[in-house]
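Board work, copied verbatim: HEAT repeat-containing protein
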Amino acid sequence: MDDPSPAVRRSAVDVLTETVPPATGPALAAALRDPHSDVRCAAAASLHELVETLPAEPDLREGLAATLTEDDPVVRAAALDVLRALRVGDAELFADVLAAPATAVRVEAVRALVSVDAAEPLSQAAADPSREVRVTVAKALASA
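↓ predict structure ↓
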């Protein structure tokens, strides 16, 4: 994962995804912060693919939480989705992302907030300027 070539780092993500050795989750979370977008996208896709098999280990949670301040909305949305699916995030962590400029990130934050029953931040998200975010809030509240 430290090779100077983005193609090699991207291949390393693929190998991790296929073999799933110990510490795959934290390694993929670290790859979400790679300077090259191809590597970040591959890591996001791999995390989505492996989410049901990855252990909810502290290093993975920390790595994913650290990516929530990244500029790349694909990275932020993927991190939120995995944090939610593994049930390792909390209302404060998810609510902090509601101000993200990307609608897809705010939608994932709403889904994550629903998973932890965070009513207060959800009520704030109901006034989001994006119709997609508001609809996600409404659907979540209707199914709760």
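The chain has a mean pLDDT of 95.
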